[in-house]
Design a protein that fits this description.
7 helices, 391 residues
């Protein structure tokens, strides 16, 4: 199991690193999922316009040392619906850049009126024309030429009926919300497993798996959850950033808070010279032992849950009736209730040894739990006196 979790985390980490390295080139021109070309990208900000309303587009030109958009035109069946002017080549003869400067780009927004006679749910075959200028390196030392470009791209934009925008947004949000639910369930399961593991080696391995899962999940979540949800909200400024931050922080934090109660439950191993018993021990006997320790017990098939004060919890799992101690799983915040369980098991299994994270003791046949606890208290006091004398 340790090897599996370690390998799982390593594979996910490597996959996440690969996506980070390749993400810019793979997705830079396809962020809208609607329209992209060699030197321009188009985002549809209003995906579901109604007839007679306007649809906002954002056009980006990119490439070279610098880029300037001269004009954007949107056509429908040979008729110009809208146009917008940009600053063009505004950099003059000098462009200031540093070694960290990435691809040059410039954005222009344009509002496209939707014809009032447009039929709902029938795509309008629009043509987007972009005239722009790129400062293209000439190959000589830090020199460039301003090269004009003209690109035309086709865009199918389907208007919706009157009052249909909320329903269209809700339908569009279903898939990312479903992925978000699956993500939350997976993170909750991993965090729950992490809290259930008690030995440090397995926790370390599972921690690597969780880290790799978070890395990949955050990258995929940006493209498949944050961006679609932002689009469903109308693409408000900064919405995708806020959503991905909530995606990678809120879900893990909530999962941690919901499962943190299990982290205080330590595992106890109960062993005996005779690991098996022919008569078996009914879970009702174990429930009575926990009640004798002052706990409130909830019984389900093959499971007991007991609580006392805010710091006392016990979980017992195993076959009912119990015929072998190796099949018994005991987790508890304190050792006193476990002593009561061991005392209830001695008639069937003989002397029972309790082994916890920092406690090892044995309950002999015929000993009551109160006697064992008193003996342990006396032993602890003696060790404390010896420690004080040594100091």
């Amino acid at each position: 199991m340790k090897s599996f979790f370690f390998a799982f985390g390593v594979v996910l980490s490597l996959a996440g690193t690969g996506v980070l390295m390749l993400g810019a080139s793979l997705f830079a021109d396809a962020r809208s999922g609607e329209l992209h070309g060699t030197g321009i990208s188009v985002w549809v900000l209003d995906r579901w316009p109604e007839p007679g309303q306007t649809a906002r587009l954002e056009v980006e030109g990119h490439g070279g040392y610098a880029v300037g958009i001269d004009r954007v035109r949107v056509w429908l069946d040979g008729r110009e619906l809208a146009s917008a002017a940009g600053p063009g080549a505004s950099w003059g003869s000098t462009i200031v850049r540093d070694n960290r400067s990435g691809r040059a780009s410039e954005n222009v927004k344009i509002a496209v009126p939707i014809p009032s006679d447009a039929a709902p749910d029938r795509p309008l075959q629009l043509t987007v024309e972009v005239d722009y200028v790129c400062a293209v390196p000439t190959g000589a030392w830090e020199t460039f030429d301003n090269v004009p470009y003209h690109d035309e791209l086709a865009l199918a934009l389907a208007p919706v009926g009157a009052g249909g925008v909320p329903l269209a947004r809700a339908r569009y949000a279903l898939q990312p919300l479903g992925l978000l639910a699956l993500w939350a369930l997976a993170v909750f399961g991993l965090v729950w497993l992490y809290h259930r593991r008690d030995d440090a080696k397995h926790r370390e391995s599972l921690g690597v798996a969780v880290a790799g899962f978070m890395m990949c999940g955050g990258i995929v979540g940006y493209w498949e959850v944050a961006r679609p949800l932002s689009a469903a909200m109308g693409s408000p400024t900064g919405a995708a950033t806020v959503l991905i931050i909530a995606f990678v922080t809120g879900v893990p934090w909530g999962s941690w808070k919901l499962t943190k109660g299990d982290s205080s439950l330590g595992a106890w191993r109960l062993t005996a010279a005779s690991e098996a018993s022919g008569i078996g021990v009914d879970f009702g006997v174990l429930a009575d032992a926990l009640r004798a320790a002052g706990l409130t017990v909830t019984a389900r098939p093959g499971r007991l849950s007991a609580t006392g004060d805010a710091k006392t919890r016990v979980e017992v799992r195993g076959p009912d009736p119990l015929r072998g101690l190796p099949a018994l799983q005991v987790r508890a915040t304190r050792y006193e209730p476990v002593v009561h369980l061991a005392a209830a098991l001695t008639p069937a299994f003989g002397a029972v040894k309790l082994t916890g994270k920092s406690t090892v003791l044995t309950v002999q046949p015929g000993e009551r739990a109160e006697q064992v606890l008193a003996r342990e208290t006396e032993r602890a006091m003696r060790e404390l006196d010896l420690t004080r004398k040594a100091l």
